[in-house]
Batch of 2 targets.
Target 1
Amino acid sequence: MRAFTTQLYEWIDKRVKLSKYWDAIAKHPVPPHVSDGVRTNPVYCLGGIAFLCFIILVVTGMFLAMYYKPTPDEAYDSIRYIMEEVPMGAFIRSVHRWAANMMIAAVMLHMIRVYFTGAYKPPRELNWVIGVLLFLLTTAFGFTGYLLPWDQLAYWATTIGIQINSGIPVVGPYIGKLLMGGGEIGPNTLSRFYAIHTIVLPVTLALLLGAHFILVRIHGISGRYL
Amino acid sequence: MRRRSFLKLIGGIFGAVLAIDIAGILLRYLWPTGAGGVASGEVKVLEKGELLNVWEAKHFNFMGKAAIIVKTPSGYHAYGAICTHLGCIVSAELTEDDLIICPCHIGLYDPETGEVVAGPPPKPLPVIKIEERDDGVYAVEWEDVEYVRSLSMYA
């Protein structure tokens, strides 16, 4: 008698050919300079680490969104509530925060690895471009998420960020106003940043990540340089 | 031109116009309404019957800038709430000595005049003229517009 889980897997596999796709994803061979099956070169894991951080951020973010209230009156108090009253709330938020920092670090290191191994060269230029967009989206995540606690640090960091954007010639002031949702940082800015942080950016990033991964599979991992 | 390519062209133009239209609608949706460039800065600060106790203060928005109204024994006074030191917003809770405090670097202001009492602020808070009318308290205008213009934090 085989295990129930095995039976369940086989039942599903017969109907949707799960193993065909799963093996293609999970058992896809990599070049020996990346992994010889025993030891894996960690510099080739950085993109994966960034992706893992993203998954952690999505999951913890979903839980944070259950309690967080994006209004000037309630934002700070709702986060204080998460940190002090909600069971495991401080853990969830801290993981979100650490994973956010880790993701930016991993993305930057991944970029450095790609640069120094020449993995941006033809035919992989387009994937480098997508990677730069992903990096910018990651920093946009950091920028919008930083405002949400609605404390002095958040307020002034956002003031500076918006002033930098407003410094762009010609279109800058319009971008600033569009970001703030008005003439100053207020309730509209908070709800805008919340929507960007929790809906716009995750969807955009996930789509670009899909393209990023598909292109990696089309091109394969670049040759041996390290 | 063959019929197929003609129809493709027409369809393409139609699609492009539609896309620009949709983009325009979305941009109009996102563009903030009624913000900035308000010629008349007059704003109702306190509703009729909404009274502050003595040494109580409240934030409001005046000409797109943070402002504060405070009740002292001599009546209501209103000031720009942006600290002249480094541009933090002064607190709406007065100190135990009944002074307006900027929490960033402990700048203290006199709630009767807006003058600096202690701390790093180089200049007093700009005064906002107020009027008590039948239906509430109104912030009317800067007492000294030139002074406000001279403050870099109010630019």
Target 2
Amino acid sequence: MAPRPTVALLVTCVVDQIAPDTGVAAVRLLEAAGVDVAFPPAQTCCGQPALSAGEPEAAARLARHTLEVFDGYEAVVVPSGSCAAMVHHWYTRLLTGRDRDRAGTLAARTFELSRYLVDELGVTDVGARLDTTVTVHDACHGLRNHGVSRSPRALLEAAGATIVEMAEPETCCGFGGTFSQHHGALAGALADAKLGGAAATGAEWLVSGDAACLLHLEGRRRRTGAGPRPVHLADLLARGLPARTGAPGADGP
Amino acid sequence: MTGRVVTPGRTFKERAEHALANAGLQAAMRNLDRRLFTAADVERTTPWLKDRAASIRRETLSDLDGWLDRAAAALEAVGAVVHRAATPADAARYVVDLALREGVREVVKSKSMATEEIDLADALRAAGVASLETDLGEYVVEVAGERPSHMVTPAIHKTIPQVADLLTAEAGRALPPDAEVLTRWVRDHLRPRFLAAEMGVTGANFVAADTGTVVLVTNEGNGRLCTTLPRIQVVLAPVDKVVPRLADVSVLLPLLTRSATGQALTNYVTMITGPRRAGELDGPEQVHVVLLDHNRRRLLGTPYEEMLACIRCGACLNVCPVYRHTSGHAYDSVYTGPMGKILTPLLSGGEEGCDLPFASTLCGACTEACPVEIPLADLLVRLRSDLRGPGPLVRPGSARRPPPPSPSAPDRLGVPAGGPGSRPRRLPGEGYPWWAGGAALPSPRRDAPYGRRRLGFAAWAALWSTPAGYRLGAAASRAGARLLGRTRWTGRRVPGSGEWTVTRDLPLPAARPFRDRWAARESGVERW
Amino acid sequence: MSSPAGPVGRLRSALEANRCEVHLATPAELPENLAALAASAAAGTPVAAAPGSGADGGSGAEAAVGPSVRRAIEMLAGDGVEVVTPGEPAWAARLPSAGVGITGADAAAAAEGVMALRSGPTRPRATSLVPPVHLCVVPESVVEPDFEAALARALAGGPPSALTWIGGPSRTGDLEMRTTMGVHGPLRVVVMIAVDR
């Protein structure tokens, strides 16, 4: 029997600190798909906040740390399109010399969660069963710098969910990192457009693969009441997995 | 900008907020067809266009000075007068002097962003020469005393009823909010002025270096009228309009028009090679071509050189979520949208629009839409690091100017000024790919390498590049969250959250981060 | 008549999509059909006719249609319609009142639906610009499959002082992105494609 593949989880600082249930869900999904998960505890942050603030040296420092931490794993899986895209698109542009070579190697082995399952592992049915209607938000960096588009939909369909596409799934939700702290009104307006588009589909859930986008959208939804509940792809699919014993210790949103 | 209505707000942020609150503007902007014809459609229908276009643009940029010389020689060979203008003021002065010398009383202008760049209409009026915009959308914004808000559809921010009110005042009689009637009125009102004007001013979509031909595209025919009836024609061509061969426009034009309006070609394409020839009954007697630099050639050899490939199609504006919600006037610059966010700080040498690169979610829709493959989102990120922050590098009115590129700085090829053996002082960040090439902007890193933003992020990165430092920081924010009670969401502003809570609830750190739960699972306390 | 799939057929479809009115005419039909179209478009106003002659730097394609157009002009004059041509002193004075301008074409691109007109002493630019109706006679021999080929043909012999490409009537989308016709150029463009048979 072929050995189970092992992946390292790059949990991301947002999931680690604010949405840990998503990390738990990601692990459960991977294990249900027949993958062993390692969690290198020395990981911190991919460095994206520094880069988008205009501080590439600080971002490079965190990039070098990330290279150290994930050196040697055959695959790195990330429950966030934008952090995976950071590794793919920016690490080789930020670093020089030997570090740049190592960055290229890491990029080739790093995958957003749904892309790992569907494109690397070839698995769309992880055993989850969903009897619900969903609409999908294609988070920007994952979509444009890492090709995350088909894979979330494939997983949802295999689980039996009905997907109703909104008018502009690929239009930015307005999070944009530091943008949403500095341009509160604009960020809110873009969130309203996204939530309005989602509401028009009549879906029960607004699904995406980026925790930060979802927190921004949920935060806006709590003010306006508009739109279906934003949920991470991993969280929704994990809900549909067969029940496990033991106390989950959740402190969900 | 003298004589123009200034959009309320001193920063992009303030103007954007005004725009969001303007219901009429929001209604008008919904008319902007986001996906007239995207780069993906070009890929699907005519995939060879993008590759050939990109290769023509790169060929030009690899020797822009050479192509400019050839273009100037070819223009002169067919009887055009060529003037190279280093600055907007220089270009405007040339045109004004020409008008005065030739006794021109009125100038008719065909739509040109370059004429906005040099404030030509204001310069002419200040010298007593009347100036009339002829493109319908440009005419409308001129009557309104505003700037164009979009480079292809300048009056997209106006509804038809608003245009009717504006032109009613101009007409002296009530004009109905009917597009056909308004169009007919503009045609009839402007026709006599075309016939009487002594000078026509246009921009150029392309200038061919082999034949000395200026290429102009319009749908309305105003470009043709401006270049057929007046006896003097002036073409204002920024240096990045040069193409090696006239035949190259058979690739670049369809790409431009498809990306701009979805048309295979615009209704009119006018190719002008010199003034009228012996025996011809119409066409200008004199053709003057002003080649405008305005800090463009300074971008060569820097990562920003790519911006000179821009063909002004407006596709990046049409897909930008920020532009669609705020419209062009929020940018308070000649060039708006994603390309404007990059070009404005660059052309102004870091003095204007320094908050613009930060007014983006970096979603990358612009990069995806660009038909000549400019990495717009990447250039925005790069600009954020080259600009110290959202404020201008030099405060207006301050005595301190940015220093000229330091004599000890490496030249464009990275060779230190004192020769390969000399060693200039090594500055923070040198050796990173960011430093490749010459200086497109006066560099804050050389001016003041240890600004507050840099120190703050350097400290953050130092802390967070160690697991212990990261856990310390995370524990501190959890402790802070506990002060707000055992809640996951708060509506209150907390340190570091900026304007988040103005429009949204803020998620707070979880009591137990993922890594603690993993550890608990490893030790058997928790099962998933 | 030419098949829809041939260059003439494709040019016709593209021009009609650009809102031109398109007619085909054989050499036998051309003079009479052209005269009838011009008279009806002019409706009592002068007809400005500047088809060009091969001698003045045009593409030489006028040799194919020149005689037919001149025959049409004779027919119009015979019916009492005022016709002005560039050689006459009255041209400059009467052009602004003309209801229709007749030109030839030096090249046409079938895929995009555009026609190219070279300027010259007998081919003033204003003929296709100032009158509200532009009547363009396109010889079949100048029709190329696409813009790239048409450009090469139009530039043969060197670029003229003005090479003008026309797709159809003047239009704008500046008002709430709704298309309206007849801004600064002609409101109607009528194309007569001169086919061999």
